[in-house]
């Protein structure tokens, strides 16, 4: 489920960036800065910091494990909820881009925030892989399958 969430979020982001290049004013350099360059920094930080800071890694690993034990990502309802949240975030990005053409503010922050979210999802996916290598955890995972 974590890998699917990262993939879906990345595809949504790519679509939003392509849309931004078609809609936003300011030229290619400005759009690239606001949709690719600055957001990539937030993505890398939100991916690396939780994996490199032991206390954050422990908290995030605990969250991932508790989510698994609660059944999140294992039932059709929870998968649809996760996809629904990603879709809602995508709609928000598209709305922000659309609003620029109607007097709204330039949507630089929404791209950085979404990229940071992708980074956290990716960190969770990495932690899932690490958890799967723990024999006790692996046994519990296999019992649920």
TrEMBL record:
Highest taxon in the source lineage: Bacteria
Keywords, ordered alphabetically: Membrane, Transmembrane, Transmembrane helix
Transmembrane domains' residue ranges: 36-56, 77-98, 110-131
Name listed for the protein in its UniProt record: Uncharacterized protein
Protein species of origin: Phenylobacterium koreense
